[in-house]
Amino acid sequence: MSDLAGAAPHFAVPYLRIAGDGKPTLWGARCNSCGENYLGARMVCPRCCTRGSMMETDFAMHGRLYTYSAVYRSYPGVRTPFIMAIVDLEDGPTVRGTLVDVPADAVGDDSVLHFDMPVRVIVRATDQLAPDGHPYHVFYFTPALNADSHPASDKDDHHE
Amino acid sequence: MSEVYVIGIDMIRFGRFPDRTVPQLAAEAALLALDDCGLTIGDMQALFSGNLGEANALVGQRTLREIGMTGIPVVNVANACATGATAFRDGWTAIKAGLHDLVLTVGVEQMGKGLLGNAVNDGFAIEGEIGSDTTPAMFALIGMEHTRKYGTSFEQFAQVAVKNHHHATLNPKAMYRRETPLEEVMAAEMISYPNTKLMCSANVDGAAAAVLASAAAVKRLGLMGRAVRVRASAMTSNPFDTRDMATTDFNLVTRLGASAAYEMAGLGPEDLDLVELHDCFATAELVHYENLMLCGAGKAGQMIDSGETWLGGRLPVNVSGGLLSKGHPLGATGIANIYEISTHLRGEAGARQVEGARIGLTHVVGGAPAMGSSCAIHILEKA
Fold first, then answer.
1. What is the pLDDT, as a whole number, of residue A4?
2. Which of B50, B92, B171, B229 is deepest in the core (most CB within 10 A)?
3. Which residue of B113, B118, B120, B144 is the best one to mutate when testing the A interface, meaning the one whose CB has the most A CBs within 10 A?
4. How many residue pairs from chains A and B have C-beta atoms closer than 8 A?
5. Which residues, including other chains, have CB under 8 Å from residue B279's CB and lie 6 or more apart?
């Protein structure tokens, strides 16, 4: 994250911001009434429909890999393959992103890439430029090398 | 409220027709369906026209310009891959409401080749940076989730493509009619693991149309002999699911739609003789075996392994060749499925006929990442 030294970076999505400690964070809303979490601002809770219960919050920048796919064919100009990852953030929403630092052909090698694998959320500059000429920054997932013993997400207990 | 019947239904052979226009394709299917019941556009009291690609361009009106501008009410319908079935359901609803007793429903699509969409968000191209918006990737996730829960293998998903490509060799209206052995399916170009190119539905041009009638109209016209009764029509949008914004839900929306359809029809999956479900990708077919309650939770892998869902098996699924091989012109598929079931119920399916078919189910479901999904299910019965 050293490429973020200096002016606040131009984030590619509205649900990334700089937290109070100066580090980038995913943020969103948590419902006071049912406890559900969402990326970005929310007016009304889509789960319990309660109004006036949404509390703005920063989310933990780590979680576990719920599901993923290695994408080999994409739109013109997109570098492939890449790994699309669906991550359950710890005490946070489920987020779609790209898993980096893992080769796409690792799919099938459980020692490298497996369900429930702990991951960290990192922010890097992309090679796309915002209108002001500065690079867009976006978040990615990377394997959490020193995995804490975070318990598996309790989202698996929800209806499937 | 009246029972609703399909009295005329047909589809054009799916293919690539770059020199035709969307209304021309729609008109061809409409005339086929009208001829199928011996009626004319002048007999129709409303038109429900499903199309996505030109959704804001009055496809219904332009279709009437091709076949007869009678000034009837036209509704242009767009509802992701459930578009055609939604148009059909709107026709059903109008008859149920007693508003009309003869309506025309049409689904049509003209598609380019290759992947759908290309999301750009405020000048930032999402693709590859924040996962993928491509449909093969969306449905690869649903397959991987099934693998996570039940250990379903790449090979099991690939068997769906083997089956549906085989079925299509018996369907003269299918776009692709070529056997694809398992090894070939698994060795084909990987698009998004585990979906290879042969496990992805074909973007094709196509149109299908159905004439719906009230019970009184069917009797008045003397058409009960080949009529198909609509036992149920159900539709759902994606209800809240904690992961729905990240990975579009196609499971829960289907399960709820299926429950509603079985309840409306007063029957269960054990009563079905055949199913045409939404196999936009091979991974989708397996999860829908469970979503439609054709088998128990976690049993989809066993179901494809058993051969039960092949023609000749206990419950044939996608004997038309499905979206994988017949093709998936987005707006047309929802009516093309109903055409397939109806053809079997009428005993007119030729080489691919499911013997003794009396009750069938059609299922379509579509959606987009971080947007939502729509599912429509119909249960049809020989009148």
1. 52
2. B50
3. B144
4. 135
5. B160, B164, B201, B285, B288, B318, B322, B323, B324
Is the Cβ of B252 closer than 8 Å to some Cβ of chain A?
yes
The tokens describing A42, both together, are 């929310």
pLDDT computed for residue A37 by the predictor: 97
Q: Return the beta strands (E) in A72-108 as ranges.
A: 82-89, 94-99
H helix intervals, chain B = 22-37, 59-67, 83-96, 135-150, 154-168, 182-187, 215-221, 251-265, 282-291, 300-306, 322-325, 333-345
B61 has a pLDDT exceeding 90: yes
- Residue B380 corresponds to which tokens in the numbers above? 């049809």
Catalytic entry in B165, B328, B344, B378: B328
Is a pLDDT exceeding 60 seen at residue B47?
A: yes
Cα–Cα distance measured from residue B161 to residue B324, given in angstroms and rounded to the nearest whole number: 7
Angle at B315 between CA B314 and CA B318, to 5 degrees: 140
B216 touches chain A (CB under 8 A): no
Task: Report the complex ipTM.
Answer: 0.90
Q: Is A114 an interface residue toward B (CB < 8 Å)?
A: no
In terms of C-beta density within 10 A (0-12 exposed, 13-18 middle, 19 or more buried), how is residue A1 classed?
A: exposed
DSSP state of A25: E
For B346-360, letters b (16+ CB in 10 Å) and e give beebeebbbeebebb
The pLDDT of residue B1 = 81
Which pLDDT score, from 0 to 100, does residue B114 have?
Answer: 80
Nearest-angstrom CA–CA distance, B63 and B49: 9
Sign of torsion, CA B325 B330 B335 B337?
Answer: positive
User: Quick check: is B167 catalytic?
Assistant: no
User: What was the pLDDT predicted at A8?
Assistant: 75
What Cα–Cα distance (Å) separates residue B74 from each residue in B45, B59, B77, B340? 9, 9, 9, 25
> For residue A158, what pLDDT band results from cuts at 50, 70 and 90?
very low
In the residue annotation, B146 being an active-site residue is answered as no
